[in-house]
Design goal:
Chain D: It comes from Gemmiger formicilis. Chain D: It holds the Pfam family BPD_transp_2. Chain D: This is Branched-chain amino acid transport system permease protein. Chain D: It is found in: Cell membrane. Chain D: Its main location: membrane. The structure holds five protein chains of five kinds. Chain A is of the alpha/beta class. Chain A folds into two domains: about 160 residues, Rossmann fold; about 80 residues, no CATH class. Chain A is built from ten helices and ten strands. In chain A, helix 3 packs across helix 5 and helix 3 runs parallel beside helix 6. By secondary structure, chain B is mainly α. Chain B has one domain: ABC transporter involved in vitamin B12 uptake, BtuC, CATH 1.10.3470. Chain B is globular, with a radius of gyration of 19 Å. In chain B, the strands form two sheets. Chain B has a two-stranded antiparallel sheet. A two-stranded antiparallel ribbon of chain B has the order 2-3. Helix content of chain C is about 45%, strand content about 20%. Chain C contains twelve helices and 15 strands. In chain C, strand 11 and strand 12 form a beta hairpin. In chain C, helix 1 packs across helix 11, helix 3 packs across helix 4 and helix 6 packs parallel to helix 7. Helix content of chain E is about 40%, strand content about 25%. Chain E has ten helices and ten strands. Chain E has a single domain, classed as P-loop containing nucleotide triphosphate hydrolases (Rossmann fold, 3-Layer(aba) Sandwich), CATH 3.40.50.300. The longest helix of chain E is centred in the last third of the chain and has 16 residues. Chain E is an alpha/beta fold. In chain E, strand 1 and strand 2 form a beta hairpin. Classes of the chains: A alpha/beta, B mainly alpha, C alpha/beta, D mainly alpha, E alpha/beta. The interface between B and D is large, with 45 and 50 residues. The complex binds adenosine-5'-triphosphate (2 copies), leucine and magnesium ion (2 copies).
């Protein structure tokens, strides 16, 4: 069985069927792309996978466990982490603390340990700092650890979001337009980073992106949505040449 | 019959709350600030009417117009001096300044007019109360006028906001000031206009509040101000019909709980109902649910 | 225990003092020079800002007036006086007291309201500093210590007296009550009234409360009294709210006998109030500003001249406090050089033994608990003025 | 990163140092007899308000929720703690009674914190503010109508009047409605106050700089993101709210036991607002600021006594002016530029130090 | 062709952060000029400085022969200088239609003309027509981006400031947007464009400036820069 099994997933907002009859299956450690025109329902799929929206139909099974309709906290614990299309950082907290919040369920000690500064506090905090810095280093953010998140430029904010998501030690990482607002060089760099993250953490990655070089360069399999429905599926090459995809999404040259 | 009379008392009180709440919600809805000095602007307005109409014998309509002018100038000045410098500051900062302004107005009123209570002569004392069921039930002229004023103001406000350029500017400012500026909206002028309208409404509210409940003191505006704020939230803050509905309901709940449960605990009951309603309907009765797209 | 049990020695001196007071009051400005020592530092505390400011202002004015008169009449200064604001708040009142102590306070004429007074009384008891409140009427105020005195009636006293008066004069058979349950004074009177009414077989048909937070609309309370068929409504509340009740009752055509306590005094002075609505209103009060006696008239005109307002009973109380202290100080040989504790002991001895004639009563005496004994006057409002009953 | 650790620790040490320094200073002044009655009389209330402000800052600054009913928690704490003290001090040693009073006051307030916490989980922003305001008003109204007495048959309770308690003649009314509790033996001292301030600061500072504190701040900054990384919102919102309530309760006991009487009216909306003023003026989320603002603003009206009738007028003006001076972005930018000029090298590259990120975000 | 916009030695601060350092450049009437630069270079800051959302510390900005650097943002817009801000900034509580209406807020040329432009925008961006009554806040990211563009067009500007107008758009729409920009420009609107997609930006632009950590590092004809090795390396992702 695959890591993520989505079957017949759908949601409607009022009269609008934003996503319908979506099937998706992602293997452990896979790099998977989800693309489609604006408003196709990609972000909505992410929102259902992470419990932000409750699907009106269908099932989501992660690692053999049905997580359909669970709340985001639980889903995070089950092993799905994400970034957001509109960046959502903890703006008034430092870069380091942003990642440490991501470690919330990984390195734990209870409230009293913190308040009474029991020995475990120091130990665990050190561990957290170590882990967090390790992650920041991967994304080349270690020098900005003390900055407030809001003071980072856009591109770095995107990276910080990914670092934070990774801190939750997910089995599946969802990235919503990670390269938006980055120039080609930065995008290139990000591709490498994502590859190495996958290799290092063995995490499956599902990503949404409109930058075709990025998607084609990185994804092993791609699903294309249009008006909430799957219109194509396959590897980069197949997608690039699919006439439906060209018509709805890529546009002919 | 008795029930009806309590109900009418409630509506009467509620219509006053509603009138005040309209001013609150207007300012809140556009400027996104809780203007805790609103009640005190009402108090100042009432004093103006008291002296112009009660003491100097001016025509009541003229007295109210005068009071509206005074309150508008006052409201716009307060906004200019005390709130505008904090436009970009956290909203709590403005809240605290508003509280400072509230203290200030009360102190000024006390120094100017002493703390001795004044008994307000109803501005509609010329009108006859409505008598129903052969006199078993009377609805005072104040109540009738207040309700009519409320409805008229509500309708005009809704029309204004939705159908005039200035109204559109208000909507835009309430959503995103920076973006509104980029549309060519003069944010400061729009907020000033909002305060002008809110304060003019405060003058009307003051005259009618004191006509129904005639004791006038420097603290007169404080409690009705808070209650009206509660009413505005109850109805869904920022929503004009919500303010009306919230005000009326608050008045009714307050009076019915006095009538049938306990006069001693009626405040607690009113607030309890409010809490329960908000738990069930977290954005108030007519409040928009804010859709955060993730 | 009242004045009668005091030793003859002090009793005679108090007599002497009381005549001298009367003399000063009458012949103000002549410079009788009864007091020759260092001025005594007397302080007042009360709310001069905030919701209860009317009471504090009245007390402040009257104290100032009394001190000025006494100093002028004496030729040399008897009192040095200072007044501090407490915003009707216990914490602020204690702060005010401490500020006065820093100034050198020897005698306290205050605070004005009950809640602050209880807090301050405990402090004065600790310091053994003489305190006399003009208007804080709860019994708990004087329970704090034997150094604390009241010049006003206590609340229970008024509640009982009102019930007795109503019963004896058969003013009504079905009694409704409207009181302020968030106010110590009002609920204090209400409770005792209720108990006494039961003893006197008065039927209480309904007791309705309001609070400081919902007092702008009292129409429902009035309607409930009307509904219950009350032919007399007892109003142990202050005059602002009472005026609202009268207006509301008038609107709904309800005309029972209204009966109030000392807090009702002032209703005729509300600017803009249609005094015809108060016609027939009865109240027990120790003071009426339009009483015809010379003392009251002199006081009222002096007050009006100085402050532009008609004084209410709290002003009269405060005026009496200063004069009573003056009388006691002269009789007890008190001097501003003494320390506050000695002053206190001397004043205690005087007050528990002397008799004082003031604006708010003749022949006032105090027992060791600090409570005053004086006769309440019942008045009725007739033709827009108080008339004795 | 180490620097970061140090920075927060250093800041905490400074904050506590200020408190201890203040205590020592007062002791010295007092020994030298240089302390006025007026000032020494305010020491305990100052401590109580400091605790209130610091605890409210946990809700407002850290959790990011507006509370207009903090005095309500103070009230329930004050009444329950005082009741315990009044009853216990008759038959238990003084320190034990006192300790118990604080524990019970804090616990009862905490319990109410849980109760109010439930709507907190569903509401936000001004709707929550209204619920907390409502809570404060409900407490005030109910306590004003609350009569509690004790006689040989045990406790009697009524929401009507003391006569309805039906006490025996030997009975004693403990809480007498609007009159509240009277005849309290004054038990609070400045030393107790300072100890409580320090405990409060330690607990809240430690909490804020721990895993739980980060979770709370994360919820404040972005609830959706916090959820997405698995922070249980319910738990941490409640934790912040209840902790804040507990300390308000303790402050209530400290405050109440400083006076001979206790009335519900004291803990009204105005008091809640006053505490909020301390928090905002001291800086939202800045605990040291809360300490200083609470102390200064408590003393200020007393310092203005010489202004007589204009006292509160001036207080109001000071409040407005300070607020504008402190919070207006122009003023902040101006101040920053001035300080930057003085510490040029220091300012370099330390963007992280700048608190304001407002601009045109 | 005269200078329509000239920016002279401007300095902008965020608190004590010096974000824009002595930047000067100009845009001639009828041109498309693009600003390229890495993340955090100060492109958005420059845009905000021009439109009046941020205050200058020093320097001057002239537009159509008029100094606008001391002018308030809303007055600048009235001079025909519209901006599509970074991050879209749509009025999320208002519907698509109302958002577009706000775009035409300053226009006084009659209902009909405005109605025409409505049709024009709906024509260019048909998705907006589909969603005309949906609250803008619930639109997808790309839809919001279209709305921001449409809203600026409704203002009938003389000059458009575009801050990453293609961000979050599908490849098809990116092409579409660039087409629209070109078309608008042909209709007489001067454009100042900030883009991460430097390649396409340089394709349609006449001239370009390269911004690096708050200072202009290079300037020149667009085609020239597009062939510059450094630029190609740094911004176009070509070795
Ligand atoms: N809460 C909501 N209420 C109403 N409609 C919604 C809501 N959320 C999304 N939609 C609609 O559902 C559709 C799908 O939106 P979604 O955000 O998933 O698109 P997307 O594929 O991510 O597009 P983009 O690439 O532009 O981000 C859109 O048309 C959007 O307007
Ligand atoms: N509100 C702010 N407060 C403090 N610093 C800021 C603020 N906004 C931007 N900055 C800083 O100013 C510099 C320029 O930022 P700006 O947003 O103008 O860059 P940009 O070129 O538009 O980048 P991007 O491509 O990421 O949009 C950056 O270093 C950024 O960190
Ligand atoms: C002046 C009055 C309001 C005082 C009142 N008798 C009290 O005890 O509080
Ligand atoms: Mg999307
Ligand atoms: Mg930018």
């Amino acid at each position: 069985m695959a890591l993520l099994e989505v079957s017949n997933l759908g949601i409607a907002f009022g009269g609008l069927q934003a996503v319908a009859q979506l099937d998706l299956s992602i293997e452990k450690g896979h790099l998977y792309g989800l693309i489609g025109p604006n408003g196709a329902g990609k972000t909505t799929v992410f929102n259902m996978l992470t419990g932000v929206y409750k699907p009106t139909e269908g099932n989501i099974i992660l690692d053999g466990k049905d997580i359909t309709g669970q709340n985001p906290e639980l889903i995070s614990k089950s092993g799905i982490a994400r970034t957001f299309q509109n960046i959502r950082l903890f703006n008034d907290m430092t870069v380091l603390d942003n990642v440490k919040v991501g470690l919330h369920n990984q390195i734990r000690y209870n409230m009293w340990t913190g308040i009474l500064r029991l020995p475990a506090y120091k130990e665990k905090e050190h561990e957290m700092n170590r882990e967090a810095m390790k992650l920041l280093k991967i994304f080349d953010l270690d020098k900005e650890a003390d900055y407030k998140a809001s003071q980072l430029p856009y591109g770095k904010q995107r990276k910080l979001e990914i670092a934070r998501a990774l801190a939750t030690n997910p089995k599946l990482l969802l990235l919503d337009e990670p390269a938006a607002g980055m120039n080609p060089n930065e995008t290139e760099e990000l591709m490498h980073t994502i590859h190495s993250v996958r290799d290092q953490f063995g995490v499956a990655i599902l990503l949404i992106e409109h930058d075709m070089n990025f998607v084609m360069g990185i994804c092993e399999e791609i699903t294309v949505l249009d008006y909430g429905r799957v219109i194509a599926r396959g590897d980069g090459k197949a997608i690039r040449n699919n006439p439906k995809v060209i018509a709805a999404y890529l546009g002919g040259d | 019959m008795q029930f009806l009379s309590y109900l009418i008392n409630g509506i009467s009180l509620g219509s006053v709350y509603a009138l005040i709440a309209l001013g609150y919600t207007m300012v809140y809805g556009i400027a996104k600030m809780l203007n805790f000095a609103h009640g005190d602007v009402i108090m100042i307005g009432s004093y103006v009417v008291f002296f112009a109409f009660g003491s100097a014998g001016m025509n009541p309509v003229l007295a109210i117009v005068l009071s509206m002018v005074v309150c508008t100038v006052l409201g716009v000045t307060i906004e200019r001096v005390a709130y505008r410098p904090l436009r970009e500051a956290p909203s709590l900062a403005v809240l605290i300044t508003a509280i400072g302004v509230s203290y200030l107005l009360q102190q000024v009123a006390q120094l100017a007019w002493t703390s001795n209570p004044k008994s307000f002569t109803s501005v509609v004392s010329g009108l006859k109360p409505i008598s129903l069921f052969g006199g078993q039930l009377t609805i005072s002229a104040e109540t009738v006028v207040t309700i009519i004023a409320c409805i008229v103001i509500m309708v005009v406000l809704i029309w204004f906001v939705n159908n005039t350029p200035a109204g559109h500017a208000m909507l835009a400012v309430s959503e995103d000031r920076g973006a509104a500026q980029l549309m060519g909206v003069n944010v400061n002028a729009t907020i000033s206009l909002t305060f002008a309208i809110g304060s003019a409404l405060a003058a009307v509210a003051g005259a009618l509040l004191c006509s129904s409940y005639p004791t006038l003191q420097p603290t007169t505006g404080a409690m009705p101000g808070i209650k009206a704020f509660v009413a505005a939230v109850f109805g869904g803050i920022g929503s004009i019909p919500g303010a009306f509905l919230g005000g009326i309901l608050l008045g009714i709940i307050e009076n019915l709980s006095k009538a049938y449960i306990s006069t001693q605990l009626s405040d607690a009951i009113v607030f309890l109902v409010l809490v329960v309603v908000l738990i069930v309907k977290p954005t108030g009765l007519l409040g928009k649910k804010v859709n955060v797209k993730v | 225990a009242c004045g009668s049990s005091a030793s003859t020695d002090t009793a005679s001196s108090s007599e002497a003092a009381s005549t001298s007071t009367a003399a000063t009051a009458e012949a103000a400005g002549e410079g009788s020079g009864a007091y020759t020592g260092t001025p005594i530092k007397i302080g007042g505390i009360g709310p001069v800002t905030g919701g209860a400011a009317i009471y504090g202002q009245a007390v402040k004015n009257a104290e100032e007036l009394a001190v000025k008169e006494i100093n002028a009449a004496n030729g040399s200064d008897v009192f040095e006086w200072k007044f501090e604001d407490d915003e009707h708040d216990a914490e602020k009142s204690v702060n005010a007291y401490n500020t006065l102590k820093d100034w050198g306070l020897q005698v306290l004429a205050g605070p004005v309201t009950t809640t602050p007074s209880i807090a301050v009384a405990a402090e004065t008891a600790n310091d053994n500093l003489f305190m006399m409140t003009p208007s804080a009427s709860a019994p708990a105020v004087i329970e704090s210590g034997d150094n604390v005195f009241q010049i006003c009636f206590t609340d229970p006293n008024q509640g009982v007296a009102s019930a007795d008066y109503i019963a004896e004069n058969k003013l009504g058979t079905k009694v409704g009550i409207i009181y302020d349950s968030s106010d110590a004074y009002s609920s204090g009177i209400y409770e005792k009234f209720k108990a006494e009414a039961a003893a006197k077989n008065l039927e209480i048909v309904t007791a309705e409360a309001f609070t400081a937070d919902n007092k702008s609309d009292l129409s429902t309370q009035v309607a409930k009294c009307q509904q219950a068929g009350a032919d007399l409504v007892f109003l142990p509340i202050y005059y602002q709210e009472a005026s609202q009740i009268l207006i509301a009752a008038n609107k709904s055509g309800y005309a029972p006998v209204f009966f109030g306590c000392d807090g009702m005094d002032g209703i005729l002075t509300i600017e803009g109030f249609d005094t015809s609505l108060a016609e027939g209103l009865m109240l027990l009060t120790p003071f009426a500003a339009d009483a015809q006696d010379e003392k009251t008239q002199a006081f009222v005109s002096a007050y009006k001249e100085a402050y532009g307002d008609t004084p209410n009973q709290f002003a009269a109380d405060a005026y009496d406090v200063v004069y009573a202290i003056y009388q006691a100080a002269v009789a007890g040989g008190i001097n501003g050089d003494m320390d506050a504790s000695d002053v206190c002991d001397a004043l205690k001895a005087q007050f528990t033994s002397m008799t004082f004639d003031g604006l708010t009563g003749d022949g006032m005496t105090w027992d060791a608990s600090g409570a005053v004994s004086k006769a309440p006057k019942a008045v009725v409002i007739k033709d827009g003025a108080y008339a004795a009953m | 990163m180490l620097k970061n650790m140090k920075k927060s620790t250093k800041s905490n040490v400074i904050t506590l140092g200020i408190v201890v320094g203040f205590y020592v200073l007062i002791q010295i002044l007092s020994a030298a007899g240089a302390l006025t009655n007026s000032f020494s009389g305010q020491l305990v209330p100052i401590c109580a308000y400091v605790i209130m402000a610091v605890s409210l800052n946990l809700t407002v600054g850290m959790l990011g929720e507006l509370s207009l009913g903090h005095a309500g928690f103070m009230s329930v704490g004050a009444f329950s703690g005082t009741l315990v003290y009044v009853v216990m001090s008759e038959n238990a040693p003084q320190p034990l009674a006192l300790l118990l009073a604080f524990v019970v006051g804090g616990a009862v307030a905490g319990l109410f914190g849980v109760l109010v916490g439930i709507p907190v989980l569903r509401l936000s922003g001004d709707y929550l503010a209204i619920v907390t305001l409502a809570f404060g008003e409900i407490v005030k109204n109910v306590m004003n109508a609350c009569y509690l007495g004790v006689d040989s048959h045990g406790l009697h309770f009524s929401l009507k009047d003391s006569a309805s308690l039906n006490l025996e003649v030997d009975g004693k009314v403990l809480i007498n409605g609007a009159m509240g509790i009277t005849g309290i033996k004054k038990a609070s001292t400045f030393t107790i106050g300072i100890v409580l301030v320090i405990i409060t600061l330690l607990v809240i500072l430690n909490l804020v700089n721990s895993r739980a504190g980060r979770a709370i701040k994360a919820i404040r900054d972005n609830e959706i993101a916090a959820r997405s990384v698995g922070v249980p919102i319910t738990k941490y919102k409640l934790m912040a709210f209840v902790t804040s309530a507990v300390f308000a309760g303790v402050a209530g006991v400290l405050y109440a036991l400083n006076y001979s009487s206790l009335v519900a009216k004291k803990f009204d909306y105005n008091t809640s607002i006053l505490i909020l003023v301390f928090v905002v003026l001291g800086g939202i989320g800045n605990l040291r600021g809360s300490v200083i603002a609470a102390a200064v603003l408590t003393v200020l009206p007393e310092l203005l006594r010489s202004m007589n009738d204009y006292r509160m007028l001036i207080y109001a003006i000071v409040l407005i002016v300070v607020m504008i001076f402190n919070q207006s972005p122009e003023m902040i930018a101006l101040r920053k530029r001035l300080t930057a000029r003085f510490r040029k090298e220091d300012a370099e590259g330390k963007g992280a130090k700048d608190k304001e990120k407002k601009g045109v975000a | 062709m005269g200078e329509m916009l000239s920016v002279k030695n401007i300095n902008v601060y965020y608190g004590s952060i010096h974000a824009i350092k002595d930047v000067s450049f100009h845009v001639n009437e009828g041109e498309i000029v693009t600003l390229i630069g890495a993340n955090g270079a100060g492109k958005t800051t420059t845009m905000h400085a021009i439109s009046g959302l941020l205050k200058l510390q020093s320097g001057e900005i002239d537009y159509c022969g008029q100094t606008i650097s001391k002018m308030e943002a809303h007055k600048i817009i009235r001079l025909g200088l519209a901006q599509v801000p970074e991050g879209r900034r749509v009025f999320s509580g208002l519907t698509v239609q109302q958002n577009l209406q706000m775009g035409a807020y300053t226009r006084r040329d009659g209902k009909e003309a405005i109605q025409n432009d409505f049709d024009m925008v709906f024509d260019l961006l048909p998705r907006l027509k589909e969603r005309r009554n949906q609250p803008a806040g619930t639109l997808s990211g790309g839809e919001q981006q279209m709305l921001a563009m449409g809203r600026a067009l409704m203002c009938k500007p003389k000059m458009l400031l575009l801050d990453e107008p293609s961000m979050g758009l599908s490849p098809l729409l990116v092409k579409e947007i660039f087409k629209i920009i070109r078309q608008v420009n042909r209709n007489g609107v001067t454009v100042l464009l900030v883009e991460q997609n430097a390649k396409m930006a340089l394709e349609i632009a006449n001239r370009a400036y390269v911004l690096e950590t708050g200072t202009i590092k290079m300037e020149g004809e667009a085609t020239e820069l597009a062939n510059n090795i450094e630029v190609r390396k740094a911004y176009l992702g070509c070795e």
